[in-house]
Amino acid sequence: MRHLLILFLLLQLSSFFPTLVAGQIIPAPTAVPLDTAEVTGQDSLSLTAPKGDIATTIKYAARDSILFEVERKVVHLYGDASIEYGDMNLKAAYIEIDYETNTLTAATLPDSTGKEIGTPVFTQGAQTYAAKRIAYNYKTRKGRISEVVTQQGEGYIHSEVVKRNDANEFYGLHNKYTTCNLEHPHFYISAPRIKAIPNDKVMTGPFNLVIGDIPTPLGFLFGLFPTPKSKRSSGVIVPSYGENSRGFFLNDGGYYFAWNEYIGTRLTGDIYSLGGYNMDVSTNYIKRYSYRGNFSFTYDYFRNDEADIAASESRSTDNAFSQLPPTQRTFWVRWNHTPVTKPGRGTFTASIDAGSQLHQRVNFNGAAQYLAPTFNSSISYQKTIPNSPFSYTIKARQSQVTETGNMTFVLPDLNFSMSQVALSDLFTDVPSTNKWYEKFTLTYNVSASNRVTNVVPARNTSQFPVLEASPADTIDLNFRNLNQLWQSGEKSAIHSFGIGLGNYKVLKYFNFSPSINYSEAWLDEKYSFRFDPDSQRVDVDTTGFGRVYQYGASAGLSTTVYGTVYVKGKRVEAIRHLIRPNISYSYRPDFADPRFGFYQRTLVGVDTRTNRAEYRNLGRFESNLPPTGLSSALNFGIDNNIEMKVKSKNDSTGTKYEKVSIIDVLRINSAYDFARDSLKLSPVRISMSTKLFKIVNLNFNTTLDPYQVDSTGRAIDRYVFDARRLRVARLTDATLNLTASLSPEAFRTDEALPANLPALTPDENPLLPEYIDFKIPWTLSLNYSLSHRRSFGVNGETNLIQTVGLQGSLNITEKWKVTYNGTYDFTNGNISYATMQIYRDLHCWDMSIGWTPFGLLRGYNLTINARSSLLQDLKLTKRSKNNAFGY
């Protein structure tokens, strides 16, 4: 009888729930609860259902019970209920399925204490909604959601009522839009009505900002917030506002154009109440596995009322803007192009940083940019020819001096080189037979360039520089002067050869390596000099093409000596001393000899003290002049390394060892020139570097002069060495630098360090940090520098410069962090630089307070900004006006 009843129910339910029965287990009869652990409806049974309003199978489950109302065609699911219908998923404490109206209704249920539990969660595709009550029509694909929280990109939308249409768009009533992920957000944008297009944008009507449940007057007539999921989108860039020496301003407002996934353009501008403005166009582009780059152009109209006021009142002021022109139109171009290197393919690289002389002074982002003495640019294409030792580079370079505006262009700059190859391989294909002459190698390099500058050298004005020449002329950079600029350029081609004569073993333990070098330069100008007794100056004549060359030879002898002392102590097992002595000989002729013709011995004047004529060797070329004086020098030096073998602290068996360096490098070198008539021994240079206690880096350098000096401070050919007075040499300079970087990681006993720490770069503006790591509880970096330099003679003195630097950070709590940076100068007895930053983690906001008490950027800075990149323009910045620039 029971089986007949079940069969009868199956036949009856199949007429009411055609798709629900297909592939499902049928629950109990009408209005009878099933007290089972879970009803999932999974079975191997598959029945073909007729087509209807339901597009696919509805899968359901409930933990407590499932009730059927057959006549009303309604199913009730209680306790951890879930529904799966295509790409839609619904979970809640209670779900109702109404097959008559094609709707799903989900709601919370009270627990034994009366608390509402089981908040409905609706998921379709990549969108998720959580609400107190959800009604969804699976036929029209429309829904109504009450008291809902939806996530769109980085933002969250809290709405009283939400309606969803078949285009997957939803409309909200009485909304809160925020990036704070708390149930009760710290801040939100309050908007009566809102429309959200998933993975695209969120649009609102009139809105205002609410912070800590306190409404603020900040808002606008409409809001547009892009929420792309996997692609960039165009949108408005909201400007920031404030006040500085250029007046009240709106900064960095504009529009972003997302052309496609690979290229985007940012068009922004600034406007100031005193009349100035700034426009900036910046484009980022990328081609995967090929290249990436950025190009930007900035135009600035600078109106300087500080200069007008200072001029009208005939007074001076400490404000740096008063030293600038009243009005100035400047521009700046930046272009960075970085390729992905691939074997056998050429690479194009660009790094452009150039513009008007005063642009960086007016639009600086920090002390480093303001004080930069030069800006350099280059564009190059480099390629190595496959299966050959040859490569070539085509380059254009430019440098710009900030203070004077002088520019130098090297255009073009061509280079062709051949890497080291065996000479025998160039003339024969016969395999090597290890003959001594088969060890000879050759390297070759040729470069051709045209160096153009807008500064006319003093020689072209018929005045020799060393004879109190007048300042050089400057050529304006414009199209009318292109021919003059080209004519004033220095054109040259330089060839260089390096011939290695092999590497040989001598006396079993020594390495002997001789070599020959030769270079030659072709220049478009050659000079001749003549002393004019009437003007008491040297006249310079240009005679045209010239050729300069130089050559030399050298041979080196080196070996390595090991010495080990076995201690067999509790921890120290042994100490090893590694010694690398080296000695080499080099020869170079005197290229000032008249037979070469590179220098001209010229009368340059008469010494008024002795009434004797003064002659000098004047170089006949602008550059690439070889050194003067015969050189026949013996160079010698020795490198030392000392380390210990100690037992590992982490090994209880005593069988594992580790190396501990005592001295990383101790280097001593000098030279003796046989060709000199006096002072043949060069100063002895000593350098040492090591690491103490694994955290302190020590670097030491000193120079010892073996010769005495006279009363004027000039070295004389008499050694300082005095055995009785224990004097070996004369100390001329010495530097000592100690640095220590401390953090909790520095005291870890295990060798494994986290590999996911970010690589940090120095901030351009120390008052506006880009990244703060709140996870490291503290860091401390100490730097001590000592420099000693002595000058001898009548006015001889000893200069001692001693500074100590301190920088680091401290996490006072999980939410508060302090960073500091300062340098104290013991020589002058003052603090040369100091700055402090205080950061507060406000969950969805960040706050920073910066204070610089001294120097160019002295003053304070307060910034409060939303943490989410979606609301990056939602920030408040306050700068003091105490610094030199009024910020």
From TrEMBL:
Keywords: Signal
Protein name in UniProt: LPS-assembly protein LptD central domain-containing protein
One term under GO cellular component: transporter complex
Domain LPS-assembly protein LptD central: 202-707
Keyword Signal: yes
Taxonomic superkingdom: Bacteria
Keyword Transmembrane: no
Signal peptide: 1-22
